[in-house]
Design goal:
This protein has helices spanning 28-39, 51-57, 83-96, 110-115, 118-126, 174-180, 194-205, 220-223, 230-239, 267-270, 281-304; strands at 43-47, 73-77, 103-109, 132-137, 185-190, 211-216, 246-249, 253-256. The two termini are 26 Å apart. It has a single domain (7-304), classed as Rossmann fold (3-Layer(aba) Sandwich). Strand 1, helix 2 (51-57) and strand 2 (73-77) form a beta-alpha-beta unit. Helices cover 36% and strands 14% of the residues. An eight-stranded mixed beta sheet has the order 2-1-3-4-6-5-7-8, with helices on both faces. It has 307 residues and is α/β, with parallel strands linked by helices.
Length: 307
């Protein structure tokens, strides 16, 4: 039986020696802080190029890097599209040496999972490698200048979208992709609901096989909003159903973790962001329709397990 705790019940120890040198308002330091508190044990990170690599894992300044004292945490930097493949190999090597306690965690962004590393991710999921993949989803290649990825939502401005620099495709559904692989566990989370996030990390670490944690990660620089609104946007993404909090176990066992009694319209979320440069009534209506259809699909899947 998995015992869950609230954030206030966790040890006060912090794994950062100082505040990370991230952009003001960046959600990643908080996400990593919560993750490490819930993992509570030996963790080996496999990461690739991205904001996190610069800030956490390979920082030239020892003042800002993670606390590696006691060898509880280690990290391995691998090619951009090979994180899941390398993590699977690392886990197998550790087990071969008799180390079955270390959790191997892939920490990468949406570009590394949704796009360039999707093939390796699919292969690792198909083999049911005993690893935890943590996708920090800021909905673009933010480390190199807000280029569009397949996680970029429809109608937002990026530096690489076709004229007039607005994305014209819908965001790829990683939940549906992972469900199709029949993996043991997929979960989505945001820092605005820390108890929900901690519960899911605890659950994931006690499951054997391939696990995928999809973490919503607002980016003030790329999204064009004041840094003070990071947590508010994370909460609004859930309240408007832009980013549902859910768990999928296997192909069809879906649980929606948060059903707000007072659902907000999507415009409450998008109006705070400069990236929605073409925020017309037609765009708002189109996005609302997309969100409503996705939610109806999720509710049908959730009810399906009870049929």
């Amino acid at each position: 039986m998995i015992t869950t705790r609230k954030l206030s019940e966790y040890p006060r120890r912090e794994w950062f020696q100082n505040l990370p040198d991230a952009c003001p308002g960046c959600s990643m330091p908080i996400i990593l802080r919560l993750l490490l508190k819930a993992m509570e044990g030996k963790v080996s990170f496999v990461s690739c190029a991205g904001c996190s690599q610069v800030v956490f894992f390979e920082s030239k300044s020892k003042d800002y890097r993670l606390d590696y004292r006691g060898d509880s945490i280690s990290s391995l930097w691998v090619p951009f599209g090979q994180t899941a493949r390398c993590a699977g190999g690392l886990k197998r090597a550790l087990v071969a040496k008799g180390d079955t306690d270390t959790q191997v965690v892939v920490w990468a962004g949406d570009g590394a999972f949704f796009d360039i590393g999707l093939g390796g991710l699919s292969a690792a999921a198909h083999r049911n490698e005993d690893i935890i993949c943590v996708c920090i989803d800021n909905e673009a290649y933010q480390n190199t200048g807000n280029q569009a990825s397949s996680a970029t939502p429809n109608s937002v401005k990026t530096s690489t979208s076709h004229f007039p620099k607005v994305q014209s495709q819908q965001k790829k559904s990683m939940a549906l992709i992972m469900a199709a692989h029949n993996i043991p566990y997929y979960a989505s989370a945001t820092l605005a609901y820390p108890d929900d996030f901690l519960k899911k990390v605890q659950k994931a670490k006690n499951i054997k096989g391939f696990r995928f944690l999809h973490i919503f990660s607002p980016c003030p620089t790329g999204w064009g909003y004041p840094s003070r609104l990071t947590v508010k946007l994370s909460r609004l993404a859930v309240k408007t159903r832009i980013f549902p909090l859910l768990e999928i176990e296997g192909k069809s066992h879906v649980t929606i973790n948060c059903k707000e009694p007072n659902v907000l319209p999507v415009d409450e979320y998008i109006k705070l962001q400069g990236r929605y440069i073409h925020r017309t009534p037609q765009v708002i209506a189109s996005l609302q329709k997309e969100v409503d259809e996705t939610w109806d699909w999720l509710e049908w899947l959730e009810s399906y397990k009870r049929l």
